[in-house]
């Protein structure tokens, strides 16, 4: 299933995420995903595995043009010239000569002028045909408003934390208003259960309402959540390094949730963010330098 972005480029709705996929596991995960039928991979300069993503794509035997490659510019590379050079680093590691989608990993709230300059560099890369689409991540409505007031190209995608326990309806509405596709990170709620990310979290994968819907369809909770994203028009990029779960997360095109089931999933929103607050300025992020290719 494909989604048409606001500049006419089509993108496979489901992609493989590789955040926290160790470099030595990443190539095999990408190979497994491509063998299963995925044609979209979401990586980032900050994940330290763009090289291994590129290796997995090459060893799949697929042509470069058959795989939609999405990656992210890290905040320490924001600024016009720095972001142009971030493209050199990303394509050098991936071993490709263009990117399908290049997005800003998050706003830099305490130096937004650098975020705007980074976006202007994305616009240059787009005009030069070095990327097919550009976008943002973790942008709240006020960040979008400020960005749109100072730039020329409306981002194609806004990638945000989005699973049944945190649906950010205000951000989704702002994206829709501007013609921006919402893409869900932690689409099956990884941020609610992976180790080391805070105490007292409720694991969305263990939610009884989701379990009941899953049982009714003979599907897993992860499959139900992914189907919910698709039926509500979102892109989702579930992460796994396990071949069986990679396949499970792609086996979602043969069932349909009812309107009531979609509404039941919507009511689970707690309004509480699990991941980092995009408005919090964190100096240590700028200390993390992205290595050259
Ligand atoms: P996900 O919601 O994709 O959950 C991933 C976790 O779920 C892993 O622990 C994985 O373990 C497990 N898992 C995967 N499939 C299943 C299944 N079918 N049943 C049970 N468990 C399963 O969380 P992520 O946070 O990784 O988000 C997905 C992607 O979004 C990232 O990889 C990254 O590409 C992007 N992202 C972007 C962010 C941003 O700021 N822009 C922030 C966070 C993520 P295992 O590997 O062992 O299967």
What would you say this structure looks like, in words?
It is globular, with a radius of gyration of 18 Å. The protein contains twelve helices and ten strands. Strands 3-4-5-6-7-8-9-10 form an eight-stranded parallel β-sheet. It has one domain: Alpha-Beta Barrel (TIM Barrel). It starts with a strand and ends in a 6-residue tail after the last helix. With 293 residues, it is of the alpha/beta class. The structure holds NADPH dihydro-nicotinamide-adenine-dinucleotide phosphate (NDP).
Provide the fold topology.
Blueprint: E1 2-4, E2 10-12, E3 16-17, H1 23-36, E4 40-42, H2 50-59, E5 68-73, H3 80-94, E6 99-104, H4 112-127, E7 131-137, H5 141-150, E8 157-161, H6 169-178, E9 181-185, H7 190-193, H8 208-217, H9 221-231, E10 235-236, H10 243-248, H11 259-266, H12 283-287
Parallel strand pairs: 3-4, 4-5, 5-6, 6-7, 7-8, 8-9, 9-10
Antiparallel strand pairs: 1-2
Helix pairs in contact: 1-2, 2-3, 3-4, 8-9
NADPH dihydro-nicotinamide-adenine-dinucleotide phosphate (NDP) binds at residues 17-19, 42, 105, 137-138, 159, 185-191, 194, 205, 220, 222, 237-242, 245, 248-249.
CATH architecture: Alpha-Beta Barrel
Q: Enumerate how many helices there are, as a single number.
A: 12
- CATH structural fold name: TIM Barrel
Assign an overall shape. Answer: globular
What spatial order of strands do you see in the largest sheet?
A: 3-4-5-6-7-8-9-10
Uncertain runs: none
Kindly, what is the distance between the CA atoms of the first and last residues, rounded to a whole number of angstroms? 33 Å
CATH class membership = Alpha Beta
**Structural class, from helix and strand content?**
alpha/beta
Biggest sheet, open or closed, and with what strands and sense? 8 strands, parallel
Question: What is the total number of structural domains?
Answer: 1
What value does the average pLDDT take? 97
According to CATH, the homologous superfamily is: NADP-dependent oxidoreductase domain
């Amino acid at each position: 299933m494909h989604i048409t972005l606001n500049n006419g480029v089509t993108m496979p709705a489901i992609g493989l995420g590789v955040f926290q996929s160790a470099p030595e596991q990443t190539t095999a995960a990408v190979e497994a995903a491509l063998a299963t039928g995925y044609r979209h991979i979401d990586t980032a300069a900050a994940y330290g595995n763009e090289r291994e993503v590129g290796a997995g794509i090459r060893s799949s035997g697929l042509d470069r043009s058959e795989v939609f490659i999405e990656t992210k510019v890290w905040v320490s590379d924001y600024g016009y010239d720095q972001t142009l050079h971030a493209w050199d680093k990303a394509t050098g590691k991936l071993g490709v000569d263009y990117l399908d989608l290049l997005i800003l990993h998050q706003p830099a709230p305490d130096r937004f002028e650098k975020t705007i300059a980074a976006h202007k560099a994305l616009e240059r890369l787009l005009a030069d045909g070095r990327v097919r689409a550009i976008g943002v991540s973790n942008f709240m409505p006020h960040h979008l408003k400020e960005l749109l007031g100072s730039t020329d190209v409306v981002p194609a995608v806004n990638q945000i934390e989005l699973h049944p326990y945190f649906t950010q309806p205000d951000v989704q509405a702002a994206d829709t208003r501007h013609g921006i596709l919402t893409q869900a990170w932690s689409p099956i709620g990884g941020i609610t259960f992976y180790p080391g990310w805070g105490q007292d979290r409720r694991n969305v994968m263990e939610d009884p309402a989701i379990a009941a819907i899953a049982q009714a369809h003979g599907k897993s909770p992860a499959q139900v959540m992914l189907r919910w994203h698709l039926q509500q028009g979102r892109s989702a990029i579930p992460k796994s390094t396990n071949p069986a779960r990679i396949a499970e997360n792609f086996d979602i095109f043969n069932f349909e949730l009812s309107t009531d089931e979609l509404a039941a999933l919507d009511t689970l929103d707690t309004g509480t963010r699990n991941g980092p607050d995009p408005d919090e300025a964190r100096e240590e992020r700028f200390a993390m330098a992205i290595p050259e290719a």
